[in-house]
Structures are given as C-alpha cells and as structure tokens.
Amino acid sequence: ADQQYDYDYFVLGAGSGGVRTSRIAATHGARVAVVECAPLGGTCVNVGCVPKKLMTYGAHFTEDVAGAHAFGWNVEKPTLDWPRFIENKNNEILRLNGIYKKILENAGVTILYGKGAFVDAHTIEVTSETGEKKTYTSKYITIA
Q1: By the number of CB atoms within 10 A of the CB, which of 45, 113, 118, 128 ranks highest?
Q2: Which residues contact residue 31 at a Cβ distance below 8 angstroms, ignoring those fewer than 6 apart?
Q3: Where do the H-state alpha helices sit in 10-114?
Q4: Rounded distance between C-alpha atoms, residue 96 and residue 40, angstroms
C-alpha cells in the first residue's frame, strides 16, 4: 500500500460496476473507498431495471386472475392496492441497497456518501448532503 495517498483506489459511483470494481480491488488488498450521492446500486436497482421489472411482474397478475376462470377457478374481480404495491416495490429496492452495502463493508471498502469531484489527478473532493467538503487522495481513481 502506498502511504502517500489516503487510498490505493477510489471509485466514483456505487452502481453495479462501482461496487464490483471496489470489492475486487479490496479483496486483493487495496485500500478502497467508493463515493455515492444516491442509494447504493445505481440506476438499475433504484430507478431502472429492478423497479420496472417488479411493476411489470405485478401488472401481469390481473391477466392471470382473469384467465383463471377458463381453468375452473371462480375468482372475484381483482383490485389493486396501489400504496401497498409501491411500498412492496420500495421495500425490495431497500433490501437490494442493503445487500450492496454489506458486500462493500464485508470487503473492507470505505463507503462515502456525497458527490465526488476531481481536484487533480489524485485528489477527489467529496461534498456531503449537508454541504461539508472533504478531500481524499488516491493512487488510482475510477469513474463508474
């Protein structure tokens, strides 16, 4: 480990790519930090693929219930409890965020919450949600 830097490897972004590169580097002995300004997991987990798939999957139940009559099932007309549907979707996303957090923590990665910006080739300034700024140095930096 190069002691002239705070970290050996610094990653901006904790989506699937950022989490993986951080974890792999840490398992090889690097001192690693990742900075993220949104919930862990990136676009796919939080607002893209996962929510879309959960909502699409849930929407198919209306058709399944409607078609059950043809197979001898007597089923009342289904109704959607929208607040419960959204709550369950959100709970699944929170569960996945927690998995990403545990993966990083178990690998020994430092998780920083805020927005990262380059100061120079080896320095990142992280601005927290409260506006507090702190700089970190790293031998290597990846934008993920």
Answers
A1: 45
A2: 1, 6, 7, 8, 9
A3: 16-27, 42-46, 49-68, 82-107
A4: 8
- Per-residue pLDDT tens over the stretch 84-141: 999 999 999 999 999 999 999 999 999 999 999 999 999 999 999 999 999 999 999 9
Domains (range + CATH), the chain:
7-58+89-143 (3.50.50.60)
CA atoms of 117 and 141, how far apart (whole Å): 11
CA-to-CA separations, 95 to 14, 38, 98, 107, 133, in angstroms, rounded: 16, 15, 5, 19, 29
CA–CA separation, 36 vs 117, rounded Å? 11
d(CA 31, CA 17): 18
* This prediction's pTM: 0.87
Task: Tokens for 12, please give them.
Answer: 């901006």
